[in-house]
Design goal:
The protein is α+β, with helices and mostly antiparallel strands. It has two domains: 12-129, Roll (2,3-Dihydroxybiphenyl 1,2-Dioxygenase, domain 1); 144-253, 2,3-Dihydroxybiphenyl 1,2-Dioxygenase, domain 1 (Roll). The protein is 17% helix and 43% strand. It has five helices and 16 strands. The strands form two sheets. It has an eight-stranded mixed beta sheet with strand order 2-3-4-1-5-8-7-6. The protein has an eight-stranded mixed beta sheet with strand order 10-11-12-9-13-16-15-14, covered by helices on one side. Strand 3 (47-53) and strand 4 (56-63) form a beta hairpin. The longest helix has 12 residues, at 22-33. The termini are close together.
Length: 260
């Protein structure tokens, strides 16, 4: 079982759903992935739900900010990256062509965080761990396994992530097609892809590990969600793009390679 006790700087360490219907989302993902929840009151804010599986924390579900809910902004899965010094990373955001959406602030003793938008408008979280390192169980069915940046402007995005998070890139052959991955040292920790069709929101796509993609896709529809596309086969395992009943987009992947 892949257990985590720490994350290297620049590694995705936490995924969080912001949704207008927190209880409905908990019911959907709980039944889909077998998650249980620990609800934690937040200082000067609503309750934050920690998803738990196999004795570890795997993801978060939070209420959407009232202004976003009032504008009918769809739910969104956000990816957070571990940083050694969030203030230093945040200071590089605008220099690298991005926008600092939320200045660094303490989340009690859990850690210190900031939110930014890269030059292509995609939001990204920066997390300096205190007592909360991020997900403690990953890369197994029902837990986070991968994040992938979908943007049309790779030339603008890549330097931003290099300057703010220290990420580098490598291109590999994936079944006859080139694939660009973000790397920390020798480890590939995420990917970058162009939009698959017109009108798709540019974002960090969150993938959850599953044992069987077809079974999960059927289950999503039974629970009121939507299969956007897939299952499709890839050289590293089948995957599918899905939406929860409130419209939150996420993906699942039956990865067939080694995990750490």
């Amino acid at each position: 079982m892949p257990r985590r006790t720490s994350y290297r700087h620049g590694t995705p360490n936490w995924v969080e759903l912001q949704t207008p219907n927190q209880e409905a989302a908990k019911s959907f993902y709980g039944r889909l992935f077998g998650w249980e929840f620990e609800d934690r009151p937040m200082p000067q804010g609503p309750t934050y739900s920690m998803a738990v599986k196999n004795g570890g924390i795997v993801a978060g579900i939070a209420s959407q900010a009232p202004d976003r809910a009032a504008r009918d902004v769809p739910p969104r899965w956000n990816t957070h990256f571990a940083v050694d010094d969030v203030d230093a990373s945040a200071a590089r955001v605008e220099v690298a062509g991005g926008r600092l959406l939320t200045a660094p602030f303490d989340v009690a003793d859990a850690g210190r965080m900031a939110f930014a938008a890269d030059p292509t408008g995609v939001s990204v979280g920066l997390w300096q761990a205190g007592k909360h390192i991020g997900a403690t169980v990953v890369n197994e069915p029902g837990t986070f396994i991968w994040s992938e940046l979908m943007t049309a402007d790779h030339d603008a995005a890549l330097p931003f992530y290099e300057q703010v998070l220290g990420l580098t890139t490598t291109t590999v052959d994936l079944g006859g097609s080139p694939f660009t991955g973000f790397t920390v040292g020798e480890d590939m920790i995420g990917g970058i892809i162009p939009p698959q069709r017109e009108g798709v929101e540019h974002r960090w796509i969150v993938y959850f590990s599953v044992a069987g993609v077809e079974e999960i896709a059927r289950r999503v529809e039974e629970l009121g969600g939507t299969v956007v596309h897939g299952p499709i086969s890839t050289p590293v395992g089948p995957l599918a793009a899905l939406r929860d009943p409130q419209g939150g987009a996420f993906s699942v992947w039956a990865f067939n390679g080694p995990t750490k």
